[in-house]
Amino acid sequence: MSTEESTLNGLLHLDAYRLALAKNRQWAIKTAEEDPSLFPKLAAAQHPEILWIGCSDSRCPETAILGLQPGDVFVHRNIANVIHYNDMSSACVIEYAVVYLKVKHIVLCGHTSCGGIAAALANKRLGLLDSWLMPLRHLREQNLYLLNDLNTSEAAEKLAEINVRQGLRTLKENSVVLDAIQERGLKLHGVLYDVGSGILRELDVAESVDVVHSRIIAFKTLRAEMREEEHEMIPYCLDSGVGIIPRSPLARGVLPTPRSTKTSVHAHTDVPIGFTVPTRDQDVDEQIVVVWRSWRERRGSV
């Protein structure tokens, strides 16, 4: 029996985790032999040109299906590739990729046979997932006229496509993304991965220059209005015993740039403005609502 056959027989008796570790060693050795400069280059820095936002599904490994190498793609994945306004994880990934890595492309990828899409269509109760999938269920309700005439498989693929398009719209409301589009030509792409064939289908999501320009102008106008309002709100919030951080991760760019704010009691250094943080033993949501309503009432009476 050859050494290779002996090694293979040994691997067959390993559980999934041990098998993965053994295959990692084989892969690392083979990759280093084929491209001796790859790992030293990756150890020095990363320079990906693509930010990939996809589904956590095990059948959709972005680097593999793109035929690329480690270091080529910066990645964020979640169930059903949903872009939530208040998801700190995806917001941090997007900002890091766009501002610091300066990726040239953002690819939002949905796929066929998606469990999250199927759950949204079935409207079953799923515990914690119910909250996460709520945007998908809203999309389903908004597009019933398109989905009702389709069979289950077709409806799932159509909703997956609609979800990608909605995600791209959400990304285009992120000022970090908008600034990069305007300043250095960042490109956004929507694709759908066919699990049954391994093929990516590119969705037509192109917009005219005029549409992009109008969005940027509208967003900058909103940013200025919110900045003026929040300049009034900051002292009131601090006097109420709360600090200030982003109201929503994806809305952070709408708000004033980070700055130092201090009171005699609290010191908050370099905090972006917008959302409240409790500084005493009180429920977060309760304190936010109390302070916000109080400030609104005070502002309205002036």
Secondary-structure topology with pairs:
Blueprint: H1 3-12, H2 16-34, H3 38-44, E1 50-55, H4 62-65, E2 73-78, H5 88-100, E3 105-111, H6 115-122, H7 128-132, H8 134-142, H9 144-147, H10 152-171, H11 175-184, E4 187-194, E5 199-202, H12 209-239, E6 242-245, E7 259-262, E8 267-271, E9 275-278, H13 284-301
Can you characterise this structure?
The protein is of the alpha/beta class and 302 residues long. The chain is globular, with a radius of gyration of 24 Å. The model is unreliable at 243-285 (pLDDT under 50). The protein has helices at 3-12, 16-34, 38-44, 62-65, 88-100, 115-122, 128-132, 134-142, 144-147, 152-171, 175-184, 209-239, 284-301, and strands at residues 50-55, 73-78, 105-111, 187-194, 199-202, 242-245, 259-262, 267-271, 275-278. It is built from 13 helices and nine strands. The longest helix has 31 residues, at 209-239. It has a domain at 46-207: 3-Layer(aba) Sandwich (Beta-carbonic Anhydrase, Chain A), CATH 3.40.1050.10. The strands form three sheets. Strands 2-1-3-4-5 form a five-stranded mixed β-sheet. Strands 6-9 form a two-stranded antiparallel ribbon. It comes from Paracoccidioides brasiliensis. GO terms for molecular function: carbonate dehydratase activity; zinc ion binding. Reversible hydration of carbon dioxide.
